[in-house]
């Protein structure tokens, strides 16, 4: 009789040969995950509060620690592996991560850019206002000057 | 044909590719479908994170994150949720080996830790609102309550779901349908912890940096 090589549902531990049952028992996997996650969490809180580190680098360090911890959760709690029975799960995850980065990165870049341009625009309209552009007579004067210039 | 976890026979026998064997068992299909849902949920959270990150400094003269957030509270919430994720994993192991007592025990511990997390979060919201830091105060606070409140809502739904699963387990035992739903619940609960990792980093730690 032949057996089918099936995918593994996400969240389920992959089928492992008998020789590895002792070294990778379920409780051990979850416990390793818990300990590594705890270490990363404590490091994050330490990094945010210490003055021993170069302050401008702290946000990047926190981001790296968070991404590492999310990876630990995926591997040890959700049992996402690189095995062939996990290809579908990995592909779906990769697509999700792509969209997350597009939404996050795209929003931040566009909004930062817009913020800069809006600042410039605000200054411009403020100076216009100071120059009395909103006043009717000065607008008319400007139009007259424009017409004169186009005639010449 | 069973797909019991940990069968060694699979390695002993000749392997046939899944594509030649017809549709996958329902447990795999359901788990995969729920995985897609969770990823779409995470994409939704990424939009909330993006709006929070954009609006984090827009406090409109009102209270800022550095003034409002308590790191001690956030650390306790993090610990509760991480431990409940761990006990949820142990519950899954017990359910896979069909041990009733351990499953109920794991579920009870998971529920209590989740409820403790929710209590701390609601207490934090309550104290913020008492200080006048409501969602209407500034764009920063609107984004904060949307993001963290949405996660809290997910935790609430998870707790209700967990109670329902224990009722179904008590009534029906380890039927395939109950086992599938418990697999989905475990996925859901672990995913909530992943989102919380992002929240405590972006909101509570980056929010109080000097």
Model description:
The complex is a heterodimer of chains A (152) and B (210). Chain A is 68% helix and 2% strand. With 152 residues, chain A is mainly α. Chain A folds into 2 domains: 1-81; 93-152, no CATH class. In chain A, helix 1 runs antiparallel to helix 2. Chain A is elongated. Chain B has one domain: Four Helix Bundle (Hemerythrin (Met), subunit A). Chain B is 76% helix and 1% strand. The longest helix of chain B has 34 residues, at 139-172.
In short:
The complex is a heterodimer of chains A (152) and B (210). With 152 residues, chain A is mainly alpha-helical.
Assembly type: heterodimer
CATH 2nd-level architecture of chain B: Up-down Bundle
Radius of gyration over C-alpha positions of chain B, nearest whole angstrom: 21 Å
The low-confidence runs of chain A, each spanning 5 or more residues with pLDDT under 50, are 123-135
Structural class of chain B: mainly alpha
- Domain unit count of chain A: 2
Alpha-carbon distance between the two ends of chain B:
60 Å
What Rg of chain A is obtained from the alpha carbons, in whole angstroms? 30 Å
Strand portion of chain A = under 5%
Order of helices and strands of chain A: EHHHH
In total, the number of strands of chain B is 1
* Whole-number mean pLDDT of chain B: 89
Overall spatial form of chain A: elongated
CATH superfamily grouping of chain B? Cytochrome c oxidase, subunit III, four-helix bundle
Number of helical regions of chain B: 7
Shape, per Cα inertia axes of chain B = elongated
In helices, the fraction of residues of chain A equals: 55-70%
Under CATH, the topology of chain B can be stated as Four Helix Bundle (Hemerythrin (Met), subunit A)
């Amino acid at each position: 009789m032949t057996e089918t090589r099936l995918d593994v549902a996400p969240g389920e531990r992959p089928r492992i040969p008998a020789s590895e049952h002792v070294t990778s028992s379920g409780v051990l996997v979850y416990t390793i995950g818990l300990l590594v996650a705890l270490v990363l969490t404590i490091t994050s809180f330490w990094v945010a509060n210490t003055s021993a580190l170069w302050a401008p680098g702290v946000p990047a360090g926190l981001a790296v620690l968070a991404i590492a911890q999310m990876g630990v959760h995926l591997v040890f709690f959700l049992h996402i592996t690189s095995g062939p029975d996990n290809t579908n799960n990995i592909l779906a995850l990769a697509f999700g991560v792509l969209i997350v980065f597009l939404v996050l990165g795209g929003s931040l870049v566009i909004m930062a850019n817009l913020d800069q341009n809006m600042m410039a625009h605000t200054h411009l309209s403020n100076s216009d206002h100071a120059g009395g552009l909103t006043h009717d007579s000065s607008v008319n004067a400007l139009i007259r000057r424009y017409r004169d210039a186009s005639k010449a | 044909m069973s797909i019991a976890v940990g069968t060694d026979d699979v390695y002993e026998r000749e392997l046939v590719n899944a594509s030649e064997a017809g549709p996958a068992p329902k447990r795999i299909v359901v788990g995969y479908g729920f995985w897609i849902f969770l990823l779409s949920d995470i994409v939704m959270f990424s939009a909330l994170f993006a709006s929070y990150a954009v609006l984090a400094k827009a406090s409109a003269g009102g209270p800022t994150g550095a003034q409002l957030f308590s790191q001690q509270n956030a650390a306790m919430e993090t610990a509760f949720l991480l431990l409940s994720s761990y006990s949820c994993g142990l519950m899954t192991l017990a359910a896979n080996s069909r041990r009733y007592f351990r499953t109920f025990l794991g579920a009870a511990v998971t529920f209590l830790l989740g409820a403790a997390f929710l209590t701390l979060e609601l207490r934090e919201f309550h104290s913020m609102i008492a200080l006048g830091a409501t969602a209407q105060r500034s764009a920063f606070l609107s984004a904060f309550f949307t993001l963290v409140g949405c996660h809290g809502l997910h935790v609430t739904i998870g707790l209700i779901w967990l109670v329902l699963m224990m009722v179904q387990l008590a009534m029906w035992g380890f039927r395939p349908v109950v086992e599938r739903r418990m697999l989905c619940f475990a996925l859901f609960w672990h995913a909530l912890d992943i989102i919380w990792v992002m929240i405590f980093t972006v909101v509570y730690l980056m929010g109080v940096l000097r």
